[in-house]
Amino acid sequence: MARNAYSPIWAGLLTSLLGACGLWAGAVGIFGSARAIRIGWLLPLAGVQLGLDPLGGFFMALTGAVAVIVGLYTIGYARRQRLGPVPLAVLPAFVAAMLLVPAAESITTFLLAWELMAVASLVLVLAHHPRPEVRSAALLYAVMTQLGFAAILVGLMVLSAAGGADRFADLHRIPQGARTTVFLLTLAGFGSKAGLVPLHAWLPRAHPEAPSPVSALMSAAMINFGVYGICRFDLQLLGPGPRWWGLVLMAVGGVSALYGVMQASVATDLKRLLAYSTTENLGLITLALGGATLFAAMGASGPAAVATAAAMLHLVAHAAFKSLGFLAAGSVLAATGLRDLDRLGGLARRMPATTTLFGVAALGASGLPLGAGFASEWLLVQSLIHTARVHSAVLALTTPLAVGAVALTAGLGVAAMVKAFGIGFLARPRSDQAADAQEVPPTMLAAMAIAAAACLTLAVAPAVIAPALHQVVAALPAARAIGFDSLGAVVRLPGMAGSIAPGVIAAGVVAATVVAATLTLWRRSRRPTPATLPLWACGADELTARMQYTATSFAEPLQRVFDDVLRPDTDIEVTHTAESQYLADRIIYRTSIVDAIEERCYTPVIRAVGAAADLARRAHTGSVHLYLAYGALGVLIVLMVAR
């Protein structure tokens, strides 16, 4: 009994310790010369080869930082939600597997670490497996993960065969045909892990059903390795790529950002909303990497360096505000047992600390000034609009479309976060669970406070990560021509006109707030003492929760605007009175929005696979003679094809 009571502490401490080790090792890889390690006996023939360079160290340090926060949060969360021994034991293993991925120095080691990471995350998604929703989400995640791994496996086999080597450092002079094949296969495999459209279907299903610490690790750390794979293999080992590579990345990123934020703006499940926000932000990062590839191929070195820096900076910002968002959502779930925004509300009084911390995360995800994502999105827009000096019809067509996609994404992102924060935490509670909520334990609040401090630091002084950002940007071929080392107190664009000072903006906002508050207090002091009277509420006795917006009603105008994309299923049921058919006794309005891509692309395939499985099941009669005949027929077909 005592061991069970202390297991959350040990699991959380071990997770944080692994994260701290990853943070230290990542820093050594970024700024120092990490020594390569080879363990020959662990894998036949190839062995395990580990090492770190600035690119791998950057992703390792980012993963370690998230793990430190999640480990501390898990100590209180596991006790509150009663996580079993299996997820508590697998959580540190999941972190260790993720730290191995950027440390791999060979294709064999990379594939081994990638599969360990996938299996560990699947076990954690199944932590609450008795519920059918969890089993369904885990099944979809398992299928998508293995299909993505198959694409990565084939792509890296082609790369290894074309380069005649297994170590990354020995892969040189890859033929153009092999480069194209590897790019398309790895983009599909790594894009699936990053949650890019149309391979995103697992993400809004698995993230909400996993325990909240796991959701934070998956969305703020594991998802990043999809970007790492694209950077490592497509942009570094095979790069700089041709123009059409950049156009493909920009198209996939722009569509993912727009589709993800549209779904987030109408989602009523808090964790599902955050999951779609992950697709949105990873789409922006992919768009920035595609822009860097295109600009470098067109000779626009300055915009290429700025776009690369924007992608890397947004990775850090997304890890900060998304981990905080999922941890705050986990606190709400632990306190109320609810994820439905339509049933929440009133948490600002019951859970003031969690409300404030989620507000910091929402501000960061909105991309507004004083938010963690503002500087990176500003850099992305600047890289897109400073390509006018390069006279090219391709850039003249693509950059305005990309700017419009980023602008629309930012606007809808603000609407989604206003809905999540305003409907979920403010106004009046819309359920007994929300009305009776209590603040979460101190360990959970401390972990969220650390993430919030990281968000505020990135918003006000992004220069704190300037040295690391300079090293990782220089590691990518698209940004080597002009180094990006102007991320100081004033962010300056290399070779271009434009600068911004986030700290000055923050100081101006704080000063304006202080002046406004002072003037308000001064004016109130000069007024006569106000009388306290009942609030007029249109003839009603008092305000109730039925008089305020719900998440569904808040998103209804946006749902109408994007009706052709979202394809909502709406039903209105009217019950008339017995006396007259012209008088309505009750009106029931139902609306549901499913993922249109999942419904139209995945559902038919799943049905076809199920039908094929039924046909195959009929062939399995249990007769050994029939199975021998199947084998003989298969051998005959192989011999005929070989002949």
Automatic annotation (TrEMBL):
Q: Which residues form a coiled coil?
A: none
Q: Which Pfam family, just one, is annotated for this protein?
A: Proton_antipo_M
Q: Which GO terms describe its molecular function?
A: NADH dehydrogenase (ubiquinone) activity; oxidoreductase activity
Instruction: Name where it mostly resides.
Output: membrane
InterPro entries linked to this entry: ComplexI-like_HydComp (IPR052175), NADH_UbQ_OxRdtase (IPR003918), ND/Mrp_TM (IPR001750)
Transmembrane regions:
55-76, 83-101, 107-127, 139-162, 182-203, 215-238, 244-261, 282-306, 312-336, 357-381, 401-422, 443-465, 500-522, 624-642
Q: Where in the cell is it found?
A: Cell membrane; Membrane
Q: Does the keyword Membrane apply?
A: yes
- Gene Ontology cellular component annotations, sorted alphabetically: plasma membrane
Topology within the bilayer: Multi-pass membrane protein
* GO BP annotation list: ATP synthesis coupled electron transport
Its keywords, alphabetically, are: Cell membrane, Membrane, Oxidoreductase, Transmembrane, Transmembrane helix
The NADH:quinone oxidoreductase/Mrp antiporter transmembrane domain sits at 104-395
Task: Tell me where on the tree of life, at the top rank, the source sits.
Answer: Bacteria
Name the PANTHER family for this protein: FORMATE HYDROGENLYASE SUBUNIT 3-RELATED (PTHR42682:SF3), HYDROGENASE-4 COMPONENT F (PTHR42682)
Q: Specify the protein name.
A: NADH:quinone oxidoreductase/Mrp antiporter transmembrane domain-containing protein
Source organism per UniProt: Mycobacterium scrofulaceum
